[in-house]
Amino acid sequence: MPRMKRIRRLAALTLAALTLAGNALASDSSGFDPSNKEQLGQFVHDYLVQHPEVLLDAQDALQAKQQQAAQKKVAKVIADNRQALYYAPGDLVLGDPDGSVTLVEFYDYNCPYCRAAVSDMKTIVANEKGLRYVLKEFPILGDDSMAASRASMAFEMLAPNKFKTFHDRLMAIKGSADAERAEKIAADLGVDPKQLEAKMKDPKIGARIRQTYALADKLNLTGTPAYVVGDMAVSGVIGADALRKAIGNVRACGSTTCS
């Protein structure tokens, strides 16, 4: 943990501990004078030595408070960016297009965890009725990923009816997904590689990628896969069971965590 972060955490824990110690002072009937700073400092020291569990209680309370604040911030960002998250033109939408619950996945064609999760996601989409599954391209793993993403977006603009097939084949490729392999898949599906290459330079594609980066930054998404559902945004593999639970909770109470 960085030094300044440790200092801030220690200060917060100390303040919380002082508050708890102050509660003990309030019930003290020994004639203690709280205006005496030296006496107060000694009392707090002695109290914490005798009751070290207070620091653990303070740490738990601090972490819970920070998590609640972070969750509220994420929920607001999701609400404020609903259109860009859920309804951006060109995003691949699977499942029920009019579903009552939307799950968004940020992915990179060269992300091994995204590839490994494909079968689980297909099962979730097949079994979760009323789920709208949005796939959002988030190329963060280098030049090949950027080229593959541009090719994918270009293909969607040229042949939207074949986009899912293109996406599935590019995601299933062995080795690195890049422009050359994307163009080969496009050719197999009847799209001229030269036309695809030219379309990859369309300014709209760059704008879409920048918008996705901006959304990820606001949501503090730093890796792939990343998921947004209900009021939750999380980076990394969380597993099919956790996703199903979050989806079920959103249906039940409107939040990924039901009380």
Automatic annotation (TrEMBL):
InterPro entries: DSBA-like_thioredoxin_dom, ScsC_N, Thioredoxin-like_sf, Thioredoxin_domain. Gene3D superfamilies: Glutaredoxin (3.40.30.10). Residues 56-252 form the Thioredoxin domain. GO terms for molecular function: oxidoreductase activity. Residues 1-26 form the signal peptide. Keywords: Disulfide bond, Oxidoreductase, Redox-active center, Signal. Pfam families: DSBA, ScsC_N. This is DsbA family protein. The lineage of its organism: Bacteria, Pseudomonadati, Pseudomonadota, Alphaproteobacteria, Hyphomicrobiales.
